[in-house]
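Same chain as my last thread, 450 residues:
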Amino acid sequence: MTTTAEILRGLPYFSDLPEELIESVCGGSTQITLEEGDVIIKEGSESEEMYVLVEGELIVSKLSGDKDVELARILPGEVVGEIALLDQAPRTATVAAAMTSLAVRIPVAAFEALLSDSRVVRRMFKTVTSRLRGIEETLRHEERMAALGRMAAQLMHELNNPAAAVGRTSQELRRLHEELGQEADSLTTALAEGLDIPEPEPAEAMSAMDRSDAEDDVAVWLEGLGLDDAWEVAPSLVDAGWTTDHLSTVANSLEPDVAPHMLRWIALRTMSDQVISEVSIGAKRISELVRIVKEYSYLDQAPIQEINPTAGIQDTLVLLKHKLGDITVSTDFADDLAMVEAPGRDLNQVWTNLIDNASDAMSEGGELLITARNETGFVVIEVRDNGEGMPPGVAEKVFDPFFTTKEPGKGTGLGLHTVHNIITKAGGEIDVSSSSEGTKFTIKLPTAST
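reply #2:
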């Protein structure tokens, strides 16, 4: 079995320390084996030791509100627990094993001995300041997201009420409109001695040129009949399937002084019917967007859920539809796709960044393909565009903080860095490949335990 002294000498943190100091530290230190989930430091507990990780991985987390927020991962060769010992204060975070791990427990007396060497002190303070900056930024981000979530929840609630009211009102307006139309038809029949107004079929799909010609024909015909707003009403009549032949049939059945009024009534009724339909569609669209935003942000839900990641992808595509413009979007998701256990809100941030970047890479239009399939123990998601690709050597740097290929003012260089952090914290992997034919991001997320 490797001795504690041999272990410490093999770590950069301790490798250049005097032999006497190493032996002194090892005198009261012990090696401990940890299983996944074992807690070695509990938030709020008294500070009695620090730990050196030899093998495996540790998770540092802190209770924020009613949930645990992951602050950092401790890797082999790193130390943890020294901050509270330096401050002689209760533990500020919880540390647990992410997998089977080996660590060295260094008690407070041995810790005090380490502080006698200036090299250890410098390393310790460098680690402390770096870790504190990371913890502060993580908690600040969580607080911002929580505040944004509360504001979004209130906004969605406020939007949903008027949207639902508009939807109900449009239904009632349509009923009244139909009844008024029926009464008007009855009056028309009585006044025009049995005139039967034709009901044309809605127009079939037309090219832009054919539609323009049809509107011009109807507008010119109506203008010849004396309608001042002929060019305003013609598009609605064409949409409803009216042609100059249909309109002539009605006009020829009426007195010359009555025909313009009857035709204008037909046009206005057609326009009002279309406006009511647009109001109804708009109200439904608002309600649908409210639903999508609530699901996208996972409002009022636990931070970690078992989710189908493709649901978030579909919602993200809806929310970014305005930016995708002329880009053709295709999806290919396995029907039996496994669930993943991850923070849904954060994953949606991943999809937003990747799809947004893909749209930037295809400013002149292109094709975006998103696929999802099962692999043993993982769900694999690929986001592929056929843009111009990245210059040589860039792909290996895209996950670095503050690295960006965008123009100044258009990118912070934190988007893909954030994406990488979210995926790795969820226990997954992300990779990128790029060529002149486009860029592909591949994400592997571990499936939820059954």
